[in-house]
């Protein structure tokens, strides 16, 4: 452990930008850039604290959702490539598993999540193509509803990182 | 492009056919999608300064999915019409001169700012309404343009009929999304499907400017002397141009009586253009606007991810907060979530030189 923490240092950087750097800048362009930088520093601060758990939660959510999406596609006999992609992404999504003693980096978690998100995206494209013939089918509606539920939840997770960094904090530029 | 006076001086001397003195070079601080530079110069034997405006992509790529060359094309063609725009002078993509293309246009005297326009004091209501009407008149000019004759139909996607304007807009946006995206976002597919399902029939097929409002145009007093920012231009439903007005149809209520707002602005627009733009159509294109901004955020995010040393700080902001807020707005339009706080949307339009 090193004191001050990364969060402490970011707060000091931000305070220095506000108190010393911004007032010394003559150009509007530079002052505008500092305004944006300060917002983004706050975002980094929030993400240092909360993004790891946020990513693990979303990986877990997609690990629960994607098998049912794959199962539905299998039941229709379509989307073989999309099912393969789901299986591959799920097989790769081991980061954050209990029993893994290594601390996963944010980069590794983000990469894992990217694979799962892309698998869902491609599967949803196939589901949308099936809509004209299957939209009244309860199973189809259920899988589409589950995807929408995930989307809403995911956006709320994102809000928890964005809102404290930006909202009510003054001009962005 | 190197915008230092030392680099610009010989280039402009050669381009303008005589010695020039570079008086100042300044980057416009408000623009986000691309770089705009003001170059003040004086030609030999001429005592007057003149200003040229340079437009180029950001070093890590523009936030806007359409090309700089398309923007140049828009200005060039519009220069042959009654629509007030800055006159373009030339396009430059010679690698001996610049590492990325740029074009140059004349500077139209005026300002993006309108003194007192945002001052809530009721004494400025009359100003606000006059400005709003002027904006409607200039938009009517755009929408009544014979876009086929000017050649826009050869360059921009053209809807087959008034019923397919929204669908074409969404399909174009999704093509752009697939060109710029990182890992796919399921939300974007859900949004596109919803937008196609809910697309209105357009009142007519017009040239649409794309992004409008306070901060986008050039004003001289109460006259809108140049319509700027044509990078989001399209051919389709004119409702699109009322969906992103940035205060230019302000909602004004005094003593319990509505004296101006989007409805009144649209009534006025209808009276001068004859085009029956509806509030419902405007709302729909407001949602489409959110989809476009999600795509811009995605492109920005990829620029920061792949070229962090070249990317601009505003691309990082666009990729993060702007993208999130637009996704929230999209979900709200689909009835799946609460809308983002109105105060946040207002904050987006603030700048350090014009705080709310």
Helical content band of chain B = 25-40%
Largest interface: A-B, 43 and 37 residues
Please mark out the parts of chain B with pLDDT under 50 across 5 or more consecutive residues, or reply none. Answer: none
Strand order of the largest sheet of chain B: 1-2-3-5-4
End-to-end separation of chain A: 35 Å
Share of helix among residues of chain A? Answer: over 70%
| Number of domain units of chain B | 2
Rg on CA atoms of chain A, Å: 21 Å
Largest sheet of chain B: 5 strands, antiparallel
Approximate shape of chain B: globular
- Per CATH, what is the topology of the largest domain in chain B? Aminoglycoside 3'-phosphotransferase, Chain: A, domain 2
CATH superfamily of the largest domain in chain B: Aminoglycoside phosphotransferase (APH), C-terminal lobe
Unreliable residue stretches of chain A: none
Q: How would you briefly describe this protein structure?
A:
The complex is a heterodimer of chains A (173) and B (356). Chain A has a domain at 52-164.
Describe this structure in words.
The complex is a heterodimer of chains A (173) and B (356). Chain A is an all-alpha fold and 173 residues long. Chain A is 80% helix and 0% strand. The longest helix of chain A has 49 residues, at 28-76. Chain A is elongated and about 65 Å long. Chain B is of the alpha+beta class and 356 residues long. Chain B contains ten helices and eleven strands. In chain B, the strands form four sheets. Chain B has a five-stranded antiparallel beta sheet with strand order 1-2-3-5-4, with helices on both faces. In chain B, strands 6-9 form a two-stranded antiparallel ribbon. Chain B has a two-stranded antiparallel ribbon with strand order 7-8. In chain B, a hairpin with a 2-residue loop joins strand 7 (218-220) and strand 8 (223-226). Chain B is globular, with a radius of gyration of 21 Å. The two termini of chain B are 34 Å apart.
